């Protein structure tokens, strides 16, 4: 999604299908821990830019299971 172009300090990005009818974007970003604060600030700025028109839900303390591969 174009609006998230400047938050790409991620090592990996996985775009998933939306899980609900009112969800428009569902993506996982693998962020180095030392860059998490910068990433969080950028996401917060995007959230404020849209005000009440869009709600961004950001979970920053989850295990990176999306990027794990079972062998």
Strand order of the largest sheet: 1-2
Computed CA radius of gyration, to the nearest angstrom: 13 Å
Strand percent estimate: 5-15%
Helix and strand run: EEH
Oligomer: single chain
Structural class: alpha+beta
Number of DSSP-assigned strands: 2
Q: What is the 3D form?
A: flat
Summarize the main sheet. Answer: 2 strands, antiparallel
> How far is the N terminus from the C terminus?
31 Å
- Enumerate how many helices there are, as a single number: 1
* Residue runs with pLDDT of under 50 for 5 or more positions: none
Mean pLDDT: 80
The proportion of residues forming helix, as a percent range, comes to 10-25%
InterPro entries: GvpL/GvpF
Protein name: Protein GvpF/L
GO cellular component, one term: gas vesicle
In words, what does this structure look like?
By secondary structure, the chain is α+β, with helices and mostly antiparallel strands. Helix content is 21%, strand content 14%. It contains 1 helix and 2 strands; from the N terminus they run E-E-H. The protein has one helix at residues 36-50, and strands at residues 12-16, 26-30. A two-stranded antiparallel ribbon has the order 1-2. The model has no long low-confidence stretch (mean pLDDT 80).
């Amino acid at each position: 999604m174009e609006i998230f172009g400047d938050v790409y300090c991620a090592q990996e990005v996985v775009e998933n299908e939306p899980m609900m009818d009112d969800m428009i974007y569902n993506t996982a970003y693998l962020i180095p821990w030392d860059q998490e604060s910068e990433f969080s600030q950028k996401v917060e700025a995007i959230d404020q830019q849209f005000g009440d028109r869009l709600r961004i839900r950001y979970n920053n303390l989850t295990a990176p299971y999306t990027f794990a591969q079972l062998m």
